[in-house]
Amino acid sequence: MIYWLHLLGRYLARLIPLPVSYRLAALGAPLVYFAWPSKRRNAVANVVQMLGRDEPRAAAERLALAAFRNYGRYLIDMLRLSGAEIARVERQLTVRGVEHLDAALARGKGLIFVGGHLGNSDLAVAVLAGRGYPITIIAETLQPPRWNALVQRTRHAAGVQTIPPESGVRGSLDVLRRNEVLGILIDRPTHGEEQGVAVRFFDAWTRVPGGVATLALRTGASILPACMVRDGAGWVIHVHPPVPAERSGNLQADVQRLTQQTMAAMESFVRQYPDQWFMFRPMWPAAPTEPAVYALGG
């Protein structure tokens, strides 16, 4: 069913004028917000933590609803993804910090382009691929298989190569050894005492995968946190200065430090664009109370 819905949605999104599609997405967002209570509760709880618990809950609810509206627009953009759409976006795009990207590749050790559930990371890598940067992303394998094939074909047509998670380590090493760009989302919270790396995020402990830091320490690749967000009528890509992958001789401490610094950069992006933070799962599940280092999940 989801495969056919995707095909229908893509057809309609490309048929209907973009401003009309955006308005329809914005109108439908409150219906989804109230009809999907688990996602609504997660989004509001995450925004409460982001704003600080002294802020009125009504403010968090307004921001969470705004995020649902922007997520609807994000889905329209993904359904329209094509060479023509990328060209349209380029005419409305500002890239801030592209010099960090070029300098990192000039080192010859590859680049890890780290994003989160903020703005439109798929569109960001497609835009950069269109500018000639060789980009591969670790892409979740979707079910059913023909839906996965449809989504990956769309990415490949936009110039973005993909690696399934089960081939993530070997494929990632190959990308970095070729001095190319590897795209990874880092802000997927992990569950359980034995998974992930403990980091402080918006003044509370959570766990996220440590694979980015491990790859950087193993290969010498640069870590560049980045995001692509709506900015008025246009778009902006923010590329953060590289997170230095320095070795201290203590691998676990180095992984924790690099992961923490990367998440601090992501926090700064979310603070700037809280209504484009699409975190609809619990960001702080069973959060640790001290900065212990755990097994390096995903």
How would you sum up this structure in a few lines?
51% of the residues lie in helices and 16% in strands. It has eleven helices and nine strands. The chain has helices at 2-15, 18-35, 37-51, 57-79, 83-90, 98-106, 121-130, 145-157, 168-177, 211-219, 251-272; strands at 93-96, 111-115, 135-138, 160-163, 181-185, 197-201, 204-208, 222-231, 234-239.
Main beta-sheet strand count, sense and barrel state: 7 strands, mixed
Q: Averaged pLDDT, please?
A: 92
What sort of overall outline do the alpha carbons produce when their principal axes are compared? globular
Please give the alpha-carbon distance between the first and last residues: 29 Å
Along the chain, the helix and strand elements come as: HHHHHEHEHEHEHEEEHEEH
User: Which stretches are low in confidence, meaning pLDDT under 50 for 5 or more residues running?
Assistant: 292-298
Count of distinct strands: 9
Features:
298 residues, alpha/beta, seven-stranded mixed β-sheet, two-stranded antiparallel ribbon, 9 strands, 51% helix, 16% strand, disordered C terminus
